[in-house]
């Protein structure tokens, strides 16, 4: 019986070695065999504002004639808002473990601010509706490939240009109905992690990144919703599926 058990263990070891030897890592469509390759991406985006208020932001807002338009404020806050993006990938290999890439993307986003007043009947939500183009430049540092899997970290800078913001749509609105607007273009830094998963004809890269704007994205205007703000920063979390 003991001899039979040893024989069984030896057979299992040799069988497992044979099975592993027969496994050939997927080609991934040959993406890693080329210095230059292309792809596309789908991205879920969650954004919110980081708010810095004016020292006197709680004061009632008065028009140019001294008439009160909005009462005293309690607070200004921002909740995360969902968005969606589609983009294209261009990747250039520098070394086996380092590459530079760009993923220009079209982002459809609604960003929101909530104004809470001493009189709750005056509370209001203000959406900053924007369609924008993100143009990032990133470095991607990759681990060794383990079978059909490779982990990586990515980081870089990004420029965002608005192409669908409502810059002049409130020209005929009363002061109490004015919009909050962002500047047309701004830069951000971003960093994230992901993994390359190799299939026979393509490579899939699930990836999550965090992005924060540089500088102030608020367009300053003298209305009840922009005047109490000193600075707005844009904080973004992105989950992407990249096909290459």
Written description of the protein model:
This protein has one domain (27-243): Beta Barrel (Porin), CATH 2.40.160.20. The longest helix is centred in the first third of the chain and has 21 residues, at 2-22. It is built from one helix and twelve strands. By secondary structure, the protein is mainly beta. InterPro entries: Beta-barrel_OMP_2 (IPR025665). Residues 1-21 form the signal peptide.
Q: What are the salient characteristics of this protein?
A:
two-stranded antiparallel sheet, Porin, single chain, 12 strands, mainly beta
Element layout with pairings:
Blueprint: H1 2-22, E1 36-53, E2 61-62, E3 68-70, E4 73-77, E5 81-93, E6 98-102, E7 105-117, E8 124-142, E9 149-162, E10 185-198, E11 203-213, E12 229-243
Antiparallel strand pairs: 1-5, 1-12, 2-3, 4-7, 5-6, 5-7, 6-8, 7-8, 8-9, 9-10, 10-11, 11-12
Summarize the structure.
The chain starts with a helix and ends with a strand. The chain has one helix at 2-22, and strands at residues 36-53, 61-62, 68-70, 73-77, 81-93, 98-102, 105-117, 124-142, 149-162, 185-198, 203-213, 229-243.
Which regions have little confidence, pLDDT < 50, spanning 5+ residues?
5-22
Query: Pairing-aware structural class of the strands and helices?
Result: mainly beta
Helix content: under 10%
Number of helices: 1
Pfam families: OMP_b-brl_2 (PF13568)
Protein name: Outer membrane protein beta-barrel domain-containing protein
Signal peptide: 1-21
Keywords: Signal
